[in-house]
């Protein structure tokens, strides 16, 4: 029996009893007060029932607006005159929200799969690029070793040339000193009025003084000519030595600059590639961790 019917019967019974008890004014006033309270309670109940029905209708309208298919009302509107129960509407609302949640999770999973495929593709491309850079680094290292080997060979050759040049210079200086010693002795003997001649070898002991002076003058002139030639040869050799030394210094400086520049470029490239590799590995780890977390969240929602 509905609560409204029970209240109506109770009110009618009270009214009948109050008609019998008209002789008791105090009790009648209290009874009237109780009847009015019950009447107000009935109105409030009717208002609440109407509010509940309006809420149910509003939920039904919302379900009609957001339902994917029109099948959520199957079994609800069997009696068109009777409104659906609140529990049935809540169950339909729960099913609709569950359906939307499943679709949202499926869409999120597809989006994550697409992003994961793009990340894997980019990672494969970067790995290929990194392998190419490593191969280039290996090639540059081999070239650097070859250049260093050639530089060592040139350095050894330059050292050998310098050693030979020193030997030639020592020989030349020794010959020059011997000639200068002989000339000095000859000059001293000329000043002293004697000539340095081995006795009795040669034919000079048979010459007269004028002839001997002429011979000595001729020898002195020859020695002077030889000395001039020797000085010219010394100047020429010094010029050649200076040019060779300058050339060797320039070549050595150029080689050192080239090697330093190549080494700095290789170090910079290695540092840059190593940094890019670390950044890519970190980015890939973060993306993979995020995908795993989302997959765990999706799996947890599905389990629920």
TrEMBL record:
Keywords: Coiled coil. Residues 90-129 form a coiled coil. InterPro entries: CCDC171 (IPR038820). This is Uncharacterized protein. It comes from Eschrichtius robustus.
């Amino acid at each position: 029996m509905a609560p409204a019917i029970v209240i109506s019967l109770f009110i009618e019974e009270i009214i009948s009893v109050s008609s019998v008890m008209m002789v008791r004014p105090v009790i009648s006033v209290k009874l009237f007060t109780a009847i009015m309270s019950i009447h107000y309670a009935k109105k409030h109940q009717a208002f609440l029932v109407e509010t509940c029905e309006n809420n149910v209708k509003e939920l039904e309208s919302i379900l009609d607006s957001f339902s994917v298919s029109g099948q959520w009302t199957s079994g609800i509107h069997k009696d068109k005159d009777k409104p659906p129960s609140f529990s049935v509407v809540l169950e339909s609302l729960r099913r609709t929200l569950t359906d939307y949640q499943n679709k949202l999770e499926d869409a999120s999973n597809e989006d994550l799969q697409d992003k994961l495929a793009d990340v894997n593709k980019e990672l494969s491309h970067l790995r290929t690029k990194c392998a190419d850079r490593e191969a280039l680094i290996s090639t540059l290292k081999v070239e650097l070793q070859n250049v260093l080997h050639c530089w060592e060979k040139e350095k050894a050759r330059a050292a050998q040339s310098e050693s030979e040049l020193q030997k030639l210079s020592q020989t030349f200086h020794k010959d020059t000193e011997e000639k200068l010693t002989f000339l000095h002795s000859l000059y001293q003997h000329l000043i002293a009025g004697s000539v340095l001649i081995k006795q009795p070898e040669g034919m000079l002991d048979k010459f007269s003084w004028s002839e001997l002076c002429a011979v000595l003058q001729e020898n002195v002139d020859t020695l002077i000519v030889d000395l001039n030639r020797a000085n010219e040869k010394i100047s020429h050799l010094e010029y050649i030595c200076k040019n060779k030394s300058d050339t060797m210094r320039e070549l050595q400086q150029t080689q050192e600059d080239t090697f330093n520049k190549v080494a700095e470029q290789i170090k910079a490239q290695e540092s840059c590639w190593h940094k890019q590799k670390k950044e890519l590995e970190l980015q890939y780890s973060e993306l993979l961790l995020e995908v795993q977390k989302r997959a765990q969240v999706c799996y947890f929602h599905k389990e629920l």
